[in-house]
Amino acid sequence: IARYLNELYNVESQESLIYLTVGAAASLTISLNALLNEGDEVIVFSPFFPEYRVFTESAKGVLKVVLPMIPSFQPDFEDFENKLTNKTKAVIINSPNNPTGVIYTKETIEKIAGILNKKQHEFNQDIYIISDEPYRELVYGNIEPVCIQKYYDNVLVCYSFSKSLSLPGERIGYIEVSSKCSNKKEVFTAVCGSGRSLGFVCAPSLFQYMIPD
Fold it and tell me: 20 to 30 A from 46, CA-CA: which of 54, 96, 112, 149?
């Protein structure tokens, strides 16, 4: 998977830590349970996949919604910055987006990263981006999704091969803890523990064989 990510994004991912999952929903659920303590806040950008609320609240977190700018559906950065507090633990990014299909621009990603870096310093705590990327390859025209790891360090990527392999329902995916994450080993340990406690013990071996192809 590290080699696959290198080829896809032309970035070095050998030191990233990879946890195989049964698809992106499992990846998101595991990641949120690994990161959140009760009452921690998770920010999402509207419109968003409705299960984000279920996943967050099941992990005893609080979901906060940032409004979009119309008609671009890029985030409202003023609203985003105002919603960040010292309880913010994670921001979920979904690009290409479900349900709009919008892809966040390089300028949008840079702006999000800049605001979060400022707030991490202000609050003296880590804030994680959870990048939900099941539609990463389903892009048409001359547009390419931006690699968030190039602009921000504390990133967990949640991915599902079910979409790119046209196998919806046949769940296989992963969580990538970025090589640049400030405490990647501790986060990865929490991911592994969260996966086991939630019952996501083993990704299906049959579909693991499909990944290299």
Answer: 149
pTM greater than 0.85 (yes/no): yes
pLDDT tens digit at each of 213 positions of the chain: 555 555 555 555 557 899 999 889 999 999 999 999 999 999 999 999 999 999 999 999 999 999 999 899 999 999 999 999 999 999 999 999 999 999 999 999 999 999 999 999 999 999 999 999 998 888 888 888 889 999 999 999 999 887 777 777 778 889 999 999 989 999 999 999 999 999 888 887 777 777 765
